[in-house]
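I wish you would study the pair of lines that follows with an eye to the fold:

===
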Amino acid sequence: MDDAAILDAAARVMGRTGPARFTLAVLAAEVGLVPATLVQRFGSKRGLLLALSARTVGQADTAADQARERHASPLAALGALVADVWAAGTTPEEYANHLAFLCADLTDDEARARALAAHRAQDRATAALLAEAVTTGELRGDTDVTALTATVQSAVTGAGLLWSLDHRATLTVRRREALDAVLAPYRTASDRGASDRPASDRGTSDRGVRER
């Protein structure tokens, strides 16, 4: 089993266990290996978590490229990214567990630096797609892409926190709603109908990238 498959499994297990119950033994059982093999590959649980964070940085750019290939519209590609690919967890419990890992990262300088790098990679991907949307006429020409990028990130992150409290709908739906609400004032008249199309028409994409 390659490292990528182990890290994929780690993200799934982390959503089920949270930091307190996540161990190499639990992960080893998930992937059918012995804990010693994971120690040999990653050095320690912390080493594995750092490897997962490092991979997330590269995946942010890769996911953006894949979204562009699947969607002709930059805003549709952005919707697929923020609502599907970058959404951590399918249940409020999974989301809360991933959030607990992020909180733990904030007390570790190296882990925080990698989490910040992942966030900045997502910022770059978001800004690039918003800029493309301005160029293609989906967004107004006077749109401040830098400011809108920050607003998008704040809105979709906040939507996840609210969802973890009220459990309304799904994380995908809530993040899409937040994105659509933020983008609505900037859409051109010809593109206003795009936000009214159902998610199935706007496209979906593979899940699996953990938001850290």
